Amino acid sequence: MDDTGTIQIRPAETADAAVIARIHMTSRAAAMPYLPPQRRDHAQVARWIEESVLPACRTWVAVREGEVVGYAALDGDMLEHLYLRPDVRRRGIGTLLLDEVRRHSPHGLSLHVFQRNAEARAFYERHGFTVLDTDDGRRNMEKLPDMTLRWTPDGA
């Protein structure tokens, strides 16, 4: 369902760190209930966004009626994060963020996704990503089986 009429995508700013942290935390809790409980509080996650994610990644936010409702963070050609507020999922906003990231990744894009995250896997598959490899969880801090997906633009 496409309900993106009033969505704008813009570069994230330091002032967005607190709302990005809230989106990160609520989205993970809603979409991946199998994850271990979050050990960091909102202030700690906001500090991580401000001090680690924003300086290291090109980051964009999706804004609806002046309110940030999602974000995506790109490190090189690795999509590190794409999260939406749970109440705005399935409205085309994730696609808008992914399209912005792909515009900045002309040679292709990779990402890691938990094997159990069937909804995210289906989303990326619909957008042309294919499985590069799978892992037993050794490479992520949650220690859960994951996979690497890759999108390569036509002609690249």
Word description of this protein:
InterPro entries: Acyl_CoA_acyltransferase, Bact_Acetyltransf, GNAT_dom. Keywords: Acyltransferase, Transferase. GO terms for molecular function: acyltransferase activity, transferring groups other than amino-acyl groups. This is GNAT superfamily N-acetyltransferase. Residues 7-146 form the N-acetyltransferase domain. This protein is of the alpha+beta class and 156 residues long. The protein has one domain (7-151): Gcn5-related N-acetyltransferase (GNAT) (Aminopeptidase), CATH 3.40.630. 32% of the residues lie in helices and 29% in strands. It has helices at residues 17-31, 42-56, 93-103, 118-126, and strands at 7-11, 58-64, 67-75, 78-84, 109-114, 130-135, 146-151. Strands 1-2-3-4-5-7-6 form a 7-stranded mixed β-sheet. 29% of the residues are buried. The mean pLDDT is 91.
> Which strand order spans the largest sheet, edge to edge or round the barrel?
1-2-3-4-5-7-6
Helices, by number, come to 4
Radius of gyration: 15 Å
The H-and-E topology, N to C, reads as EHHEEEHEHEE
Q: What is the CATH architecture descriptor?
A: 3-Layer(aba) Sandwich
Keywords for this structure?
seven-stranded mixed beta sheet; alpha+beta; 7 strands; 29% strand; 156 residues; Aminopeptidase
